[in-house]
Amino acid sequence: MYDMKPRTPEGSGVTQQAESGPEIMERSRNIELVALLEVSKALSSTTPIERRLFAAVRILAEYLDLQRGTITLRDMRTGELNIAAAYGLSRTEIARGKYKIGEGIIGKVVRSGSPIVIPNVDEEPLFLNRTESRNGITKQDISFLCVPIKDKGDILGVLSVDRIFGSRVTYEEDLRVMKLVAQLIAQTLRLERLLDQEREEKEELRQQLKDKYRLGTLIGSSKGMQDVFRMVHKVAPSRTTVLLRGESGTGKELIARAIYSLSERSAKPFVKINCAAVPGTLLESEFFGHEKGAFTGAIATRRGKFEEADGGTVFLDEIGDLELSLQAKLLRVLQEREFERVGGNRTIRVDVRLIAATNRNLEDAIREGTFREDLYYRLNVVPVFLPPLRERFEDIPLLIDHFLDRFNRENERKVVLQKDAVGTLTRYTWPGNVRELENAIENTVVLAETDKIRSTDLPAHILSGPQQPADGLKGSVEQLEKDRIRDALAANAWIYARAARALGLTERQLVYRVKKYGLSRE
Length: 522
Ligand SMILES: Nc1ncnc2c1ncn2[C@@H]1O[C@H](COP(=O)(O)OP(=O)(O)OP(=O)(O)O)[C@@H](O)[C@H]1O
Ligand SMILES: [Mg+2]
What we know:
Blueprint: E1 2-3, H1 9-12, H2 22-43, H3 49-64, E2 68-74, E3 81-87, H4 91-96, H5 104-112, E4 116-118, E5 142-151, E6 154-164, H6 171-212, E7 214-215, E8 218-219, H7 223-235, E9 242-245, H8 252-262, E10 270-274, H9 280-288, E11 289-290, E12 302-303, H10 305-308, E13 313-317, H11 324-336, E14 338-340, E15 347-349, E16 353-358, H12 362-368, H13 373-379, E17 382-385, H14 396-411, E18 416-417, H15 419-427, H16 433-447, E19 452-453, H17 460-464, H18 477-491, H19 496-503, H20 507-516
Helix pairs in contact: 2-3, 2-6, 3-6, 11-13, 14-16, 18-19, 19-20
Adenosine-5'-triphosphate (ATP) binds at residues 217-220, 246, 248-254, 359, 399, 402, 434-435, 438.
């Protein structure tokens, strides 16, 4: 075996001396030049790197009349050597071709950084023949040439070829061409690694941005939502009462859950009570529990939600709808942290953190006498206002992506929205806010007949619905909402349940708005 540094194959005496008349030399020089040109073209194409490397060895082997050509690359993390491209080897032969640095000849080239020539494979004990590709043919016919692929002192891998014994070219010439090709390969790999690095950095940045625009399952890049997120992070750790305000479907419940999960109470219960869903007396028992026999049907003692939540968080949803008698009792819980069960006289003390939410205008309710002012001040310690979607249209594309991802996954679809469709959704005024957008995307994904959704494929009520004027005149928004609700009711024969669904509102919310805008069937 011959290391190129200490001695050349020619000097070794074992090497076959090639026949070298001047014309033959001239011809092979030309072939070499063409081969190099072709290799460099192949390496700089835009196909995937594996394809380019394969093309390079194929061209090299074909032009120089070699039996086999292999590029073995070093895995920079594990140090393992793997065949990256091979010409004249089958897939299984390639799979077998794994070497550790220092193992066999390829390993030796990697370690020493110098070329090696094995004039006769048969006489070389270091020759591992890992790929077993040379079995069956007489080994003594083959010489094996390896050059390192170096990038500024870093050994990236090895370029190796098989040549039939006794060809007319000297090893020196072969090695010269191989070194040039190895240089081209090294340049290509360096560029590829730089590009990879750049891609990784970009992906990392994208991920960081994504995290910034996220809070739990909430999405929001707009200034309004970023302010909300900041506020949530600020108030979450303490026991402060938080009052969430915002129109229906703006994410109040999600924010309540986010505050809870960021709090020190996240291991304790989160108990939601809907103040509007249950009639008064039952609600009191739901809040505070009851003793056996407290009222008809109270066949056993029951703990209320405040007791269940002890140590944790109570989320009072639709607090604006709480009736006055219960408002007084809630006030006491807020002030004294104590209450009695319905029909009981034992005072129960609890430690709960309160988060309340409403889409009502509580200030109006106070003026109208339906909401206690003292309770209002107790609740309004830290108010957090969730902006309506029409005032933060920059969130819409992000939300669309988020919901598309989810509903595509759930429905095993690959629906994408074309630009014009995103435009239409961004200009729409969304009276039902994010919930309505969520429903619209779900509808679109489920009903889509093609994967590429254009504006005209969107739900009809959005297409015909009011679109935000380009410069967003705030004052007209209520008018738009009113029109939109009237249209939805007309389109659904004034069946509230259906119109509400189309709008992404609950029936109750729709009724509230019909009253607010004084809409009637005529
Ligand atoms: N910023 C957001 N990012 C992702 N999803 C959101 C966001 N805001 C709201 N949603 C989705 O919209 C829907 C409505 O949210 P949520 O129930 O929190 O609204 P709400 O303000 O409590 O409404 P309501 O007053 O009608 O109870 C939910 O399904 C939620 O997943
Ligand atoms: Mg809610």
